[in-house]
Design goal:
A six-stranded antiparallel β-sheet has the order 4-3-6-7-9-10, with no helix packed on it. A three-stranded mixed β-sheet has the order 5-2-11, with no helix packed on it. A two-stranded antiparallel ribbon has the order 1-8. The chain is elongated. The longest helix is centred in the N-terminal third of the chain and has 15 residues. With about 150 residues, it is mostly beta strands.
Amino acid sequence: MRTLISLMLIFVVFNFYSCCTKKDCESAGLYDIAFRNFNQNELDTIIIYSYSKNSNFTVLVDSFITNGELNNSGYCYVYTKKSIPDFDFKIILSNSGQIFNITDVNIEEKGCNTCFPYRPRSDYYQVISNYKINGQTNYHSTVEINN
């Protein structure tokens, strides 16, 4: 009888309380575009247009001009000011004339911590699962434009 009561108590405790590791997770890569294998001159003037999603680039929402700085690993990250999954983007590298259309950005939810016996809703975060650049599907968690 004592064993049965102990097992019931353990069952009740696990059903009401979840044990999760406590690392801080947040959605990443939803506002940045990475440029790879470009030279600094090509990234000097970057024009970013954001359009209503699925508008075939006809409903302009915002635009701005920025520049990029290559980091030590040869990447340049540019902040888009808008959540990438919520818009379509046209990126123009002014010095080279290259144009990149970013569309069909999909996200997925992932669990952040190791939880037992269940994962609370607050433990999920969003990451990019795939997207298209000029019609080509890419599977990365960050929008990455390669030269």
